Structure of (S)-3-amino-2-methylpropionate transaminase:
Amino acid sequence: MPQYARMKTAIPGPRAQELLALMRRYVPDAMAPAVPTVIARARGALVEDVDGNQFIDFAGGIGVLNVGHAPPEVVQAIVEQAGRFLHTDFTVVPYEPYIRLAQRLAAKAPGSSPKKVAFFNSGAEAVENAVKLARYATGRAGIIALEGAFHGRTYMAMTLTSKAKPYKARFGPFVPEVYRVPAPYCYRCPLGLSYPQCGLACVQALERALVTMVAPEATAAVIVEPVQGEGGFVVPPPEYLQAVRELTARHEILLIADEIQSGFGRTGRFLAIEHFGVEPDIVTVGKSIAAGLPLSGVIARADLYDRLGEGVVGGTFVGNPVACAAGLAVLDQIERQDLVARAERIGAIARRRMEAMMERIPLIGDVRGLGAMVGMELVRDRRTKEPADQETSRILRRCAERGLICIKAGIYGNVIRLLVPLVVEEDQLQEGLEILEQAVLEEAGVRS
């Protein structure tokens, strides 16, 4: 008997149908939701819709809710700050929440180099400003990104993003001086090789690009996601990022780590780059930074920021005081509840369950991830690795109908990804995994 996923109506229920009809009339279809209902309230890892149906949330607002829906301590910080003041523009009159949040994030960044932090509104804005900083500080234009990357939807971020549909098709031309090299996607190696016999051929491809595409002295930065998010929860080999760091340092090229989806404890470290023993020059953070309020940041070596002139970066709403207050409360909750360790526990449970499923279900081609950032790639044939994209969509629909919110990723749309809030209770996690397993079994035609 389900304890947490409770469905009073089919979805969408009557009230949700009314609201979704208004949505179709007034909101572009390009914003169509993954789950056909409308939220009324949420707390922790549970979501209730306008018809009283209750869902277990494995999507977490696409990685935004590491500390859960509406954590009381964060809500209280928001209320208190809103009662003091909502806005000044930090470059007109600065305020303490911005300064304190910068101080704490600078201390959490890996490596011994002194750091400074600037805040923005979204992950894409953080990426844009990381690129601006890299170009300004080096006097170089070239930016190298990876296949399968996702860095946002504004024009520089969209240029860096790899997947054509739906993100880039018919939106060109794109920003110049961006170059792309193969990613360390070992399950689907773009070079057709096998790890570790490949000898990190993807790093060799990067080194070759500095000869065939853009000269080192014209290259400002290489940008990587320590774990690719939208690209399919792709985890690089342990030594890959170390090799990239050594190569970039040799040529005085900056290394940008995009931690927007993988940061704030998601992978069992505060930042995913910590798993690899690498100090990047610039780190972008966002998503879970403020529990759902719009906020992002660029953490960088202080000497890079010190090369900027006055007024070179900024924006009217960037580093909003209410969002910064929320950010401080988020850090408090991550530390008080030891959510970094909790992510390791969640990931271990999910990986064991998914790997056991893979032994029984040929539809599952690969299970991978770090901490609570776990993905399951579905294929029609394990030998050919033909992507099971339609099957993935049907599985997610079944999950939603039974009270589990789950979303997909991957360059072929065939990876089911786990971004459950790190405050999820263990029985909620197990119930959600049971719903997911039954949906996959039904799609695969395997008896439970």
